[in-house]
Specification:
Elements (H helix, E strand, L loop, with lengths): L8 E6 L3 H12 L4 E7 L2 H11 L3 E5 L7 H11 L5 E5 L4 H10 L3 E4 L4 H12 L4 E2 L4 H9 L5 H11 L4 H8 L3 H15 L4 H11 L6
Helix pairs in contact: 2-3, 3-4, 4-6, 7-9, 7-10, 8-9, 9-10
Length: 212
């Protein structure tokens, strides 16, 4: 027997692009069981809107100016532990998926998904279930399988991706060159890659680092 809802699901849409917010709101508001009650263009604005409106569900872009999507999720969950948040992204790097879900999001869907799939994801998360875009699930499994990089290893990896050599990295971080070599070897092992170029490519593709 299908579950019926006597009231509309009150939704907060969070995306830094006005046209995207407008498109999502227009698309969702035609559904009998959904109503977009607020929009926000940043993590800070999303947190303020959540405090004021306390929506039933948040549809949130992963990449936001200032606070990231994952950081915004963590901030909301810290105050409202039962918040139901569905992440929406153009990207499928497993690090972004992992961070968002670790922060407390209950679902993750790509912007390339069909409208019917988005509606299904919203309803599942609204009903307390979890939803993971089918194309993202294998990436998340891959992310969980490799060990996390330390903060220092991430620093070194970002510099490697920018083309810096060990001597330059050592000077920038004020550490010994032999220590840089050790960090690089750990990075290669954890990412399961053969060399620096492959490490940089894999890290950018997976969303482990960003050069923005």
């Amino acid at each position: 027997m299908m579950q019926t809802h006597s009231k509309q699901t009150r939704i907060l849409v969070v995306d830094d692009h006005f046209m995207v917010r407008m498109g999502l709101s227009s698309s969702l508001n035609v559904e009998a069981d959904m109503e977009v009650i607020a929009e926000a263009g940043s993590g800070e604005a999303a947190l303020a809107a959540y405090r004021k409106q306390q929506p039933d569900l948040v549809l949130m872009d992963v990449r936001l100016p200032g606070m990231s999507g994952a950081e915004t999720v963590a901030a909301i969950i810290e105050e409202f532990s039962e918040a139901r948040i569905l992440m929406l992204s153009t990207h499928s790097g497993e690090e972004e998926v992992y961070r968002s879900l670790q922060a407390g999001a209950r679902g993750y869907i790509l912007k390339s998904a069909l409208r019917e799939e988005l509606l299904r994801a919203i309803r599942e998360v609204r009903d307390g279930k979890r939803y993971l875009d089918p194309t993202v699930a294998p990436l998340l499994a891959e992310r969980v399988s490799h060990r996390s990089l330390t903060g220092r290893e991430l620093e070194v990896l970002r510099m490697v991706a920018k083309g810096l050599g060990n001597k330059e990295i050592a000077g920038a971080l004020n550490i010994a060159e032999v220590t840089v070599k050790l960090h690089v070897s750990h990075v290669l092992e954890k990412l399961n890659v053969k060399d620096r170029t492959e490490a940089a490519t894999a890290a950018l593709k997976r969303g482990v680092i960003s050069l923005e």
